Amino acid sequence: MDQLVKQNIKSDSQWLRVLFIVLYGIAYQVAELVVLFIVIIQILFSLFTGEPNQKLTQFADGVNRFIFQILQFITYKTDEKPFPFQDWPEPSAQVGKPSAHLKQPAPDEDAPIANK
């Protein structure tokens, strides 16, 4: 057992993996800030236009997939390194539609106005 531990500690590949984990951990923190920025911008779009920006939604999907790939790598779920060692994650074919509660129904002119 001691021999295996010594071998692992001296292994260049183990230390290289640790280095990549640290670097991807930093990339994860940056990606979190990007997501926060996207959330703020999408809230503003939703407030002013009634729906989120679709281009930003697609970009957010790519960022979400990148974060997932980082988590898969740093938790040893996979040995495949995320971007830039792979292509940037493509957004899914169909990015979700805005929630139904974001769409305001058109007022019915014939409907009675409720008293408060």
UniProtKB/TrEMBL annotation:
Name used for this protein in its record: DUF4389 domain-containing protein
Location of the region described as Disordered in the Swiss-Prot/TrEMBL record: 84-116
InterPro entries: DUF4389
Keyword Transmembrane helix annotated: yes
Keywords linked to the UniProt accession: Membrane, Transmembrane, Transmembrane helix
Compositional bias ranges of the Acidic residues kind: 107-116
Listed transmembrane segments: 21-48
Keyword Membrane: yes
